[in-house]
Amino acid sequence: MSWLSRKQQAPNLEDNRIAVSLEHLRALEFKARGFSFLPRQPVRSILTGRHGSRLRGRGLNFEELRHYRPGDDIRTMDWKVTNRTGKPHVRVYTEERERRVHLLIDQRVSMFFGSQRAMKSVVAAEIAALAAWRVLSSGDRLGGVIFDDHDCYTIPPRRSRDSVMEMLSRLAKTNAALAAGQPSQASQLNVAMNNLARELSHDALVIYIGDGFGWNDRSDELLKQMSMHNDVIVINVFDPAEVELPRLDELIVSDGEMQIAVSGNRARLDESFRESFNEHVAHMQDVLRRYGLPLINIDCAEDPMNQLLKALGSGR
């Protein structure tokens, strides 16, 4: 449900707190600086230490097998060929010039919720745009899956400005189509994850941006499958009202057309909200910790760019 009025939700007002415009996402190109998804991270980055060792960076391509030369790294020795020929041989690799980065962007009705700065769906779109522009400036290939409650839109990984604009254009359209009052499909998360898993090969980076609604045991399996040969970062977007209800004697909740007043046992209601949110986040944290993958929590009440800088550190 939205806590914002129907008048505020009117598309012709171009209120980027409710429905984000393509122009707004395009303008974020000039803010996408100072953070990095690369394996070598600044000291303050969440990707350093235990998590940093999981990030593979760009992959290596096998180039040739040749005789050992003085100064070659002993770790590149091919012992099978050396034993078979009686002469030392090494395997030569070259680093891939670019890396594939896949964004998995959640734009379901569960994301159409906001109590302060902006809707979760808008914040997710802003984070996706910042990540997309950062990936492009790093010279890597960008692709991904944008999904709502009914469809998944796949953008193949490419290294071009046109590809970024294609993704942001689709994202803006999907975001603008969101409306309160419709049920959110919990199962669509696994559909989108499965679609992306089929597209992955190895040494790619997957960044999920959403609220994790519908995350279950099947989601755990898909996450494990993707992380076996690729890196995965989960960016959990949440609103403060999901953690703790606003301090009001009576709470008015609206879907944009109808509204209800929530009162009664406030302490019990607060406890129920906290338990539900904490259990959800705890499950994600447990699974990610099990696979050594990072979780970045983004609060909708604050500027997402500042939070990315804090989580990923000041870097390239």
UniProtKB/TrEMBL annotation:
| Residue stretches making up the DUF58 domain | 64-283
A Pfam family (short name) is: DUF58
Top-rank taxon of the source lineage equals Bacteria
Q: Which InterPro entries match?
A: DUF58, vWFA_dom_sf
> Which PANTHER family does the entry link to?
BLL2464 PROTEIN, DUF58 DOMAIN-CONTAINING PROTEIN
Name this polypeptide is given = DUF58 domain-containing protein
Q: Which organism is it from?
A: Congregibacter brevis
Q: State the taxonomy lineage.
A: Bacteria, Pseudomonadati, Pseudomonadota, Gammaproteobacteria, Cellvibrionales
